[in-house]
Amino acid sequence: MQNHSLKGKTALVTGSTSGIGLGIARSFAGAGANIIFNGFGDAQEIAALQAAVAQEFSVKTAYHNADMSKAAEITAMMDYATSQFGGVDILVNNAGIQHVANIEDFPVEKWDAIIAINLSSAFHTTRLALPGMKTKNWGRIINIASVHGLVASAQKSAYVAAKHGLVGFTKTTALETAHTGITCNAICPGWVLTPLVQKQVDARAAADKLSNDDAKKALLAEKQPSGEFVTPEQLGALAVFFCSDAANQVRGVAWNMDGGWVAQ
Ligand code: NAD
To answer: Which of 7, 54, 62, 166 is most deeply packed, by most CB within 10 A?
Structure first.
């Protein structure tokens, strides 16, 4: 669906070369916002993606390859946004990784990477985006947390710690901006079928000797009462709502879209 409610705004979506971030970037482009993509992937494929979104939605697109685990690269990306677009109006902290293991077996470097990418990167982008947003007295910061920012699962210690941290950081950001035109909220998705989750489907299929389809059903049956995946497009529509005037007083929420996961 295309509208022009965000025309003239610039949205930076971290980790937008795939999955949820890409879905959100496309939804913002559909609402008329210029997009700064970020994330890993093949350079030619990313250039093609950028061009396709620019053409489909008649918006400007750009790309920065900052590694979200590195503060200096995040600074370079935010400087690039300022030089190309005069700053970031909408910041979506979405880049994230997962690793599944019991605590005593959890690789230390995986713990450090998950905390850096899924949590600390949001601090760095936010601290660098806020001055420009305050000057304009308008801004939207949307943190892609997870149901694991609200409840836990075994074997996901780093991810659960990072996502609970991100929900807390969202609340502090909302309080520090409460008297401004800047809002900060978190979105907490349940299972979304992206490459990050497909890895867990594959692991389940291998462990339990299941087909791909049966492994998906088993994963959903365990946690997500609707039995259906949430889609990147549905999450994108919620993110666009957060950027609307109707959401001016939605501040500091952790909004789950999870097929009933945390209602249990
Ligand atoms: P994905 O693997 O499809 O996409 C992750 C994106 O982040 C990719 O663009 C990747 O290149 C990028 N990325 C990874 N490490 C990076 C780094 N160091 N620097 C820059 N970019 C990096 O995963 P997804 O499922 O779309 O996940 C996106 C976000 O949504 C994550 O924060 C994840 O925790 C969260 N989430 C996902 C689900 C789900 O079910 N898929 C559920 C809840 C929350």
So the answer is: 166
Structure confidence at residue 40 (pLDDT): 98
Examine the domain organization and report whether 117 and 20 are in the same domain. Answer: yes
- Is the C-beta atom of 238 inside 6 A of ligand 1? no
Strand arrangement, sheet containing 10-13: 61-64, 34-38, 10-13, 90-93, 139-144, 182-189, 254-257
One domain for residues 124 and 81: yes
Does the beta carbon of 20 sit less than 6 angstroms from any atom of ligand 1?
yes
Q: Is 189 in the pocket of ligand 1 (CB under 6 A)?
A: yes
User: pLDDT tens, 137-180?
Assistant: 999 999 999 999 999 999 999 999 999 999 999 999 999 999 99
In angstroms, the CA 49 to CA 19 distance is 13
> The domain containing residue 223 runs over which residues?
192-229
Question: Does this model's pTM top 0.90?
Answer: yes
Which residues carry out catalysis? 159
Q: Please check whether residue 264 lies inside any domain of the structure.
A: no
Q: Could you give the number of structural domains in the chain?
A: 2
Position 203 pLDDT exceeds 60: yes
- In this structure, is residue 68 part of a structural domain? yes
Question: Which of 16, 20, 92, 228 is the best mutation target for the ligand 1 pocket, counting ligand atoms within 8 Å of the beta carbon and taking the most?
Answer: 20
> Do 173 and 133 meet the contact criterion of CB atoms below 8 Å apart?
no
- On the question of pLDDT at 81 being above 80, the answer is yes
